[in-house]
Design goal:
This protein has helices at 2-61, 63-76, 80-107, 109-116, 122-147, 152-179, 186-226, 235-274, 279-320, 324-351, 353-360, 365-375, 378-397, 403-426, 430-456, 463-491, 494-515, 521-525, 530-539. The chain has two domains: 2-460, no CATH class; 461-543, no CATH class. By secondary structure, it is an all-alpha fold. It is globular. The protein is built from 19 helices and no strands. The longest helix is centred in the first third of the chain and has 60 residues, at 2-61. Helix 1 (2-61) packs parallel to helix 6 and helix 8 (235-274) packs parallel to helix 14 (403-426).
Length: 543
């Protein structure tokens, strides 16, 4: 069990580290892109990306999880041939869905842009249309490798995708922003230029995974020969199984992500139709949320998303072997690791929100105080969304595919009632959007926790998972804020003070967590390079 659990954590950590790196690259390139586009162009980019994200949910976001789930089940039963046939069937399904959805979004771009309340986002939406086809096939390839038990191809492809995305996004935004000046459409064309990065990045990732797959084909052929006597399922039966898996995952993922995706549409329509605000005014306001707050807070949540990809096939193997004890231990480990990393990351954003915004983004001075206050809610946002993400994966891993759908649907209804009331009663402001998101995430967390306990008997541990990381994060936050203020008083340079405070924060959190016994030697050993970490800590008498 120990080896199995360690491998699960290592695979999850690989994808988590890749996810963190991808988010860091995303933050780095979005800074110059946002500064090129301005708040208005950023809002058009955000609206186009929300439309794209909605159709990505429908077409392919559920594909990696669904394919990895089926492949994992077949491999757990030693049915390698059926695992491969399921992969081929998924490729065909992915192609059909991808072509259909790409055509819908391309030819309906103007309709969707107007429906969202941002007509100028039409060019960016059209650029993103072919990406949906690529991502459909890419999702199947990633799911196949994840189901085989390796996260490395997915991790590397994500990094390559983001690097290409970063380079092309900056160049495209700058070129088309300048090109659009004469026509008075700098913001709209600049947003379209930035979305070119998404297209090129997806293409690069696709080419890489095809190359990896071709390298793996000889090994796969040998495995298939050894597995000739295993029962062979028809493509029709495997396709039915795939669809029965995809639909619940699709509905769950769609409903879960609907809240944040449709926020821009609700905000834009209420601003334009209820309060009759100009598009440029409310676009600039929403650009602060989509371009700064949302970008920064999604980085820690990537850890939960990465662990989710690792936990589903791992739990499936334990459940298939009727080993509930190991499954529960895996759930506990994933919850703990997620919170140990996500809580301090969220606390850091809350404490240093203003300085980080000033360091990274060219925000109008009149909006900086507003944006800084919103950042103070980061720690709550990160905790509830990281927890709800990982708990969704747990429910899918124990084969309760419908439960996350109903839980997310209830959370979404509560979210939109709260959001509309706050926007109408208190007039358009970003606090309503942020608080509405928190309400949704919290509702899903509570409902998922109840469901997990009911189906597998796992009761969420609170002290080591939440309270100790929160205590260590609070100590870290106080030290970090003090270091920043003292450094700023001495140097008067925000960049130097911010970077120094972040470096101190990492050390302060690690030491605080060790001193209050928030992480054990056994847990440290389960991490990648855990033995070396334990050795170094003991050498300096920290463990």
């Amino acid at each position: 069990m120990s080896k199995n659990k360690t491998n699960f954590l290592v695979q999850g950590s690989i994808l988590a580290m890749a996810g963190i790196l991808v988010r860091v690259i995303g933050i780095i390139y979005r800074v110059p892109v946002q500064n090129i586009l301005g708040s208005e162009g950023t809002a058009y980019y955000g609206a186009a990306y929300d439309v794209y994200s909605l159709f990505l949910l429908i077409s392919s976001m559920s594909m990696p999880l669904a394919v990895s789930k089926i492949v994992s089940i077949k491999l757990a039963k030693n049915q390698i041939k059926n695992a491969y046939r399921a992969f081929i069937g998924a490729l065909i399904v992915g192609l059909v869905i991808g072509v259909t959805v790409s055509a819908v979004i391309f030819y309906g771009a103007e309709f969707f842009a107007k429906m969202w309340g941002y007509p100028s986002a039409v060019y960016a939406i059209k650029v993103l249309a072919p990406v949906l086809l690529i991502m459909s096939v890419l999702g199947v390839l990633r799911g196949f490798f994840q189901g085989m038990g390796t996260m490395m191809p997915t991790a590397i492809s994500q990094i390559l995708e983001q690097v290409a995305n970063a380079i092309v996004s900056i160049v495209g935004a700058l070129f088309l922003f300048k090109l659009g000046k004469d026509a008075g459409q700098s913001a709209a064309l600049g947003a379209a230029g930035s979305t070119l990065g998404t297209l090129v990045g997806a293409t690069v990732a696709f080419i890489f995974l095809v190359f990896v797959y071709m390298m793996y084909v000889p090994v796969l052929k040998r495995q298939l020969k050894k597995n000739r006597l295993a029962p062979e399922e028809s493509y029709m039966d495997l396709s039915k199984e795939l669809m029965l898996t995809i639909v619940p995952v699709l509905l769950s993922t769609t409903v879960y992500n609907f809240s944040s995706i449709l926020d821009s549409g609700v905000f834009g329509n209420i601003c334009s139709k209820v309060f009759h605000m100009e598009e440029s005014v409310y676009s600039a306001m929403y650009g602060i949320y989509s371009g700064s707050y949302k970008l920064l807070t999604t980085a820690p949540i990537a850890i939960a998303s990465a662990l989710s990809a690792a936990i589903v096939p791992s739990i499936i193997r334990s459940i298939t072997a009727k080993d509930n004890y190991t499954a529960i231990r895996k759930i506990e480990s994933s919850m703990r690791l997620t919170m140990v990393i996500a809580i301090p990351a969220g606390m850091g954003l809350s404490v240093l929100g203003g300085p980080i915004l000033e360091l990274l983004f060219n925000i109008n001075p009149a909006d900086m105080d507003y944006a800084s206050k919103i950042m103070m809610l980061s720690v709550v946002t990160v905790i509830v969304f990281a927890m709800s993400t990982i708990s969704n994966a747990v429910l899918q891993g124990i084969n309760r595919m419908r439960t996350p759908i109903f839980n997310a649907l209830i959370g979404m209804i509560i979210h939109y009632i709260a959001l509309v009331l706050m926007l109408v009663v208190f007039k358009p402001n970003l606090y309503a959007v942020v608080i509405g998101d928190i309400i949704f995430g919290l509702a899903v967390c509570i409902l998922n926790a109840i469901s997990i306990y009911r189906y597998i008997g796992y009761k969420q541990e609170v002290v080591k998972t939440f309270l100790l990381p929160l205590a260590a994060s609070a100590i870290m936050g106080a030290i970090t804020l003090g270091v920043y203020k003292i450094s700023y008083m001495v140097t008067g340079i925000n960049a130097v003070s911010c970077i120094l405070a972040i470096m101190v924060a990492i050390v302060a959190y690690g030491l605080s967590l060790l001193l209050i016994k928030g992480i054990s030697e056994e847990e440290l050993r389960m991490l990648p390079k855990g033995e070396k970490i334990v050795y170094l800590l003991k050498r300096f008498s920290l463990l």
